[in-house]
Amino acid sequence: MHREDLTFTPRVMERLKNYRWKENVKELYNTISYLSFLDKPIIDIHMLPLYIQGDKESFNQVLSSQEIQVDKIIEVIEEHGFIEESTAILKAFHEGKRKRESYGRLKLMDILLKKEIRLTEQQLRMRLEVLQDLGLLNVRKGRAGTTISKLGEQFLECIGKGDESETIYFGRH
Question: Which of 154, 51, 50 is CA-nearest to residue 94?
Answer without folding.
Answer: 154
